[in-house]
Amino acid sequence: MWKALQEVGHLSETFRVGEVVEGLTRCGRRGAGDQVNTTVAALLTSVTHNLHTLLDHYLETAVDQIKPRLRDAVEKSCEEGRGTPLVEDTLSPTLTLLQEHLQPPSLRQRLLLRLWDAVLVLFMVVVSNKKKAVEYYEAVLSVLDLTFLLLTRRDLNPTAATTPGYTSLKEALEEQAVSTPALIVQYYRTRHAHLTHYQHPTTARLLIRAFYSQPGRLTLRVLEARDIPPRRESSTSSCCSSSSSSSSSSSSSSSPRSQPQCYVVVQVVPGHRFPSAAICKTWSTKAYPATFHETFQFPTGVVSGDSSGWVQVSLMQGPTCSGRLLGEGLLPLTNLPYVDSPELQNTCLRLTAPPVHRGETGYRCLTALRCRTKDEMAISFLKTLEKYHPEASV
Fold it and tell me: Are 93 and 152 in a shared domain?
């Protein structure tokens, strides 16, 4: 079939189509010559397409025949955490045979690509059906890398092998191979960047004073919430007389009655690094402006490094025990001054409320955490997160 494809490419020369067209043109039949050219080109294109389709079907059939062996080898390599069953016992002998009996490099490349796609699908199926420890995914990632290395050393073009499927699988395995504490830190690092991004609208501003009263002891005073969006009036409240609605509309944006009941939640995160630090809440208030003047203290130990931890403040609407998130902010612990520092002053923290969707870039760590159904740290973290961000469970 491959030989037939090569011969089709030379049919115009074999049948001397160019000479026929030239003869027609010399006789003044240029239109007939153009028609011959068009007809022959269309015919050769159709034949070439049909031959490529047949060749693809042949290659797929060949790969299908070895899929059962590949599936067993992938499963065994993943379970044992070593590449021998797949790489050395199955793929290596197969590739040696291909090199001996499938000489045209371009044809061998096509077959290798289909073989590689089949292997990737088998990896995806095996991994999706497993919920294992971090070490399992580390081993699977190692087997995948060995497989990629073998195929690219045996004529598979590395650029062609870096398919979207391979990239997606490798990223998923790399995330699953990360420890639970590191995944949680990754979430907060992403969340901090997300909250402070200029494109997200400000939902409120919170006036606080945060400092270290002594090494390893953080003090945070929640002073006042500003620019809180007015409470949404119910549809029944809008069915008033025209005179009363017109008199109230002019002052609804600044009236105390439009101020929602709200409170503030303060915690030091990630929780696994600060197990002795409690989650603190202010009293709920309907005052306008929302004034709290409450002080909380947290044991943090000596902090260092950009990802050592954050103070998370959440402005909630509703009663203290069951509120809805209005806005959120994160302050890196390493940025906070000591009580005697000349830099100590009140901070007006801009709060935003971008949603947390685990499919988004940066939040894919949540998908890895959700797979850890027997990991108490992952379960506890997700449970707390979903209290403030129900959309994270979708």
Answer: yes
